[in-house]
Amino acid sequence: MSDLISRKALIDIFQKKADENTGLIRNNMLFAKKLVEDEPTAYDVDKVVEELEEIRQDIIPLTDMDNYYVGQSVLINEVISIVKFDDAADYKKENGWISEKNNGEWQDICSECQEG
């Protein structure tokens, strides 16, 4: 059995219970709903990439002549890069990094290097 739960389902349950009640119970349900809404969604980037790489290995044909399979492999490579980018973006945000455009190029600046 998995420990994964649907965030949306949980939010919907708290809202339904809030709508069915008044006073302290309603306030508690709305508070619980807000806690769930504010909690960041998390996933194991390495595990996701590992699973995508396994899928990519399964779809590569014996010959590269079949453009359909090659296209799927390229698509999975793109998905992997997006997953890794999102992980890097989250790290950047959590650690106070900012992005600035300098001479037409975007630069990432750590919190220690930012001008005060």
Proportion in β-strands: 5-15%
Cα gyration radius (Å): 22 Å
> What is the overall pLDDT average?
75
- Major beta sheet, strand line-up: 1-2
Question: Helical percent range?
Answer: 55-70%
- How many E-type strands? 2
Q: Report the oligomer.
A: single chain
The secondary-structure element order is: HHHHEE
Shape type: flat
User: How many helical stretches?
Assistant: 4
Uncertain segments are: none
Structural class comes to mainly alpha
Distance between the termini: 51 Å
Could you give the topology of this structure?
Elements: H1 7-20, H2 23-38, H3 45-59, H4 67-94, E1 98-102, E2 105-109
Antiparallel strand pairs: 1-2
Task: Write up what this structure looks like.
- By secondary structure, the protein is mostly helical.
- The chain folds into two domains: 7-38; 45-109.
- It is built from four helices and two strands, in the order ααααββ.
- A hairpin with a 2-residue loop joins strand 1 (98-102) and strand 2.
- Helix 1 (7-20) runs antiparallel to helix 2 (23-38).
- It is flat and about 55 Å long.
- The protein starts with 6 loop residues before the first helix and ends in a 7-residue tail after the last strand.
Task: Give a short summary of the structure.
The protein has helices at residues 7-20, 23-38, 45-59, 67-94; strands spanning 98-102, 105-109.
